[in-house]
Amino acid sequence: MNKKPSILIVGAGAIGSFYGAILKKAGCSVSAVLRSDYNAVRAQGIRITSPLGDLSYEPDHVYRDGDLPEETPDFLILCVKVLPGVDRVALVAPWMGEKTRLVLIENGLDIEKELADAYPQNPLISCLAFIAASRTESGVVEHKAYGKLVMGRYPEGIDEGCRALSQLFIEGGIKSDLTERVVSERWRKCLWNTPFNPLSVVANGADTLTMLDTTGGEELVRAMMREVIEVAAAEGYPMDEALIDQNIDNTRKMPAYKNSMALDYLNDRPIEREAVLGNVVALAKRHSVAVPHLNTVLVTLKMRAALEGRE
Amino acid sequence: MNKKPSILIVGAGAIGSFYGAILKKAGCSVSAVLRSDYNAVRAQGIRITSPLGDLSYEPDHVYRDGDLPEETPDFLILCVKVLPGVDRVALVAPWMGEKTRLVLIENGLDIEKELADAYPQNPLISCLAFIAASRTESGVVEHKAYGKLVMGRYPEGIDEGCRALSQLFIEGGIKSDLTERVVSERWRKCLWNTPFNPLSVVANGADTLTMLDTTGGEELVRAMMREVIEVAAAEGYPMDEALIDQNIDNTRKMPAYKNSMALDYLNDRPIEREAVLGNVVALAKRHSVAVPHLNTVLVTLKMRAALEGRE
């Protein structure tokens, strides 16, 4: 590609806004489809403070969810949360051109299939983001630290599109790694997220060290990690059990912190329960793998949602 | 015993006040040791509304926790909650005479041993109360329904003291059954309480039907019940698995309700976590019985307590 490709960010929250800024810095045209932040971004663009400097930018086009596209993008980057009420297939439908590559920068496991099935002709690039960023108000994002991406073609492999996109992110100033087995990388990330995130919510927003230092807490986290490893293995993504020690050790080395799901919970935002935990338990059932610890946490969260009339 | 025996209630909350009233009706002298409700009860006695009529009474003596006894009672009935911060052995110490029979009307499993070990010469009577009652303000109790007791000598058997006490409760107007195996009865009661009570707290105060009707909820409750049955069997108290169906069916036949631990939680009162759940998990460990569902709920509750600086 000689001309820099066109990018459309669907769901420009903290993550989408940040990665859009990086691609803008790399020289791409970057547009955004917004819902609640439409007016703010239309008026003042996207404001981003970052250790990388001021990353604020004006998107080339600002669309409102429901607008008809002026053109379809080379890369459609989907950054909405994976929630039961959000129909991602419908959300991207108006913007999917024949050659549009669909890029997911989203959390969770088994979140690609639905989109791959709906758009079998469009290459799907799955990305993992290692980043600390938050939206502080409409159109305003605080990038705190990190930002590295790991990406690959779904379900596996690396193609020209992956290479081009990864290179653009690097040109924009962040780290980006390619992987032949992106699903495997998702499992590695979820080895941490699937136990810690939902557990922090059931524990009313507990931080990492509170969870580990509670009597029986570290053992519970380890038991949940072992269950994740068993499900991953049944899915064809074996992981070394030594990763459990590594994850625990690394978590203990960091200061106590509240993970993103704990923060969502404490701020009354919806949590990505199914993407991070429910899908793992569903896969476990399909493979007849017993996951009593994961299931107890999942059902407890469902009971809470039922109590609040949310399901 | 020709003369009616003397009774001392230690911990005259809803349960202690109610059963004191019944024994008062049966003609016993009934005194009470109080802490926070001392002044109110001293001034106006104990007020109890009940479907059985007005059960209000003046205790023969009203003591404050820490007073020295004028005499030791024939039956010391201990009704305080079983909580880590409450030293029950010390609490009853000043009132234990050589011939005093110690009576527990308290919830939970494995709650007798500590007292039996401390007072090996005093017969210990363990009671289960099937009652709906609550303390609405200092010295004021609302008895809503039920009231039946099941009692026996701890660790097993029925002696003269049990018979006499049970007969007094019957004379006072409630049902009272004797059992040769009171610990076995505790397990049967905990088959319901151990899953439902703590689960309702983790689920933020969910009622019975919300818990059962959540997707996966009934299965989770059943899994926890199976674990309770396994621990009970290892302890020498086998239960029929058919009790699980019975418990679920009976719960479904009742209107949705919030159990006592859910209400304690919602009203910011301490919960009897260890008595109802922690002790079961501890026994499971001792017998190497795997209880992943029970343990997940237990550790989650501990994480919450740690988060709130309560342990």
UniProtKB/TrEMBL annotation, chains A, B:
Metabolic or biological pathway: Cofactor biosynthesis; (R)-pantothenate biosynthesis; (R)-pantoate from 3-methyl-2-oxobutanoate: step 2/2
Single GO BP term: pantothenate biosynthetic process
Alphabetical UniProt keywords: NADP, Oxidoreductase, Pantothenate biosynthesis
Top EC class, one word: oxidoreductase
Family: Belongs to the ketopantoate reductase family.
Biological role: Catalyzes the NADPH-dependent reduction of ketopantoate into pantoic acid.
Name of the molecule in the record: 2-dehydropantoate 2-reductase
UniProt organism field: Marinobacter psychrophilus
